[in-house]
Amino acid sequence: MQTTMPDIANTAAALQTGKLDWVGMGDIELPFIFESLDLAPVTVNAKARAFVNLHQEDAKGIHMSRLFLALDHLSTEQQVNPHTLAQALDTFITSHEGLSDKAQIEFKFELPLRRKSLLSGKAGWKSYPVVLTSTINQGVISFELSVDVTYSSTCPCSAALARQLIQNAFSEKFAQETLTQSEVLEWLGTTQGIVATPHSQRSIANVKVKLDQNIQEFDVVNLINLLEDELKTPVQAAVKREDEQEFARLNGQNLMFCEDAARKIKTTLESKEFSDYFLQINHYESLHAHDAVAIAVKGIEGGYKA
Ligand SMILES: Nc1nc2c(ncn2[C@@H]2O[C@H](COP(=O)(O)OP(=O)(O)OP(=O)(O)O)[C@@H](O)[C@H]2O)c(=O)[nH]1
User: Fold this and answer.
1) What is this model's ipTM?
2) Which of 7, 110, 193, 209 has the lowest tally of Cβ within 10 angstroms?
3) Rounded (5°) CA angle 105-279-83
4) Is-above-0.95 flag for pTM?
5) Whose CA is nearest to atom 25 of ligand 1?
């Protein structure tokens, strides 16, 4: 009876030789405890991708189980922060001595955050899609953080056209009359008075930033806050009528095309001195069946491409 098991990855000849940029696994189910500044450690259900390069041209393959078990250790024995991710990447490399000198771990998950209502003092949960990518390349670690922020955008063109209709309706109705303040006040409170409303749409800002390689902590909450504060109209969790009215006011005072949203966020990211960034604004139009999209990058050599 054979007692030793064949070990194809170590002993078989490659069908064809050649270097490969990334080899590994995708869609790994991986719950873990995530640590980030201003956030109590939180369990998230991530989907992970784990890779090493294969730079030894005639090796049959990498050792998938070693990557999988290093991630499992991160999930069950540790909390995820820059330090433990660096350890996991180091394990990827040391367990593939002679085969690989690059490794990458990508986590995709939803981060639940408590969000306050605009005026009523209530709060509720809101989930933010996050992608955290950690890479080691010949001993140098880099981190990249991507978040999606959902907000409402009201079309400035539509708002101007609606105002014109309101003015036209007003001049038709009261052509010859001298009006009292209370008559105008009452008329403004009717559907005939505000005869048109501008369209607005649910919109998503996807922002990706390169983090300093020496960071001690991730800071997802403050990145999200930065973007929401700039956009002014993030979608809300708990909403009472006073919150809804305030949301309507904020929408009316922050009319924006996708270009406006993109320029606001670009200016904010520039002010924070990220070494690189990518942003994509998607306005899921209610006027059209297609979307309005704007993209910008920092524009550094070798950096993100638009
Ligand atoms: N390299 C590689 N492995 C694969 C692939 N698909 C499935 N596997 C399996 O991944 C399993 C784990 O591989 P290894 O990490 O080499 O497992 P092992 O030999 O038990 O572990 P070590 O003793 O640490 O080398 C093997 O059973 C492979 O068959 C693939 O496309 N490439």
Assistant:
1) 0.89
2) 7
3) 30
4) no
5) 63
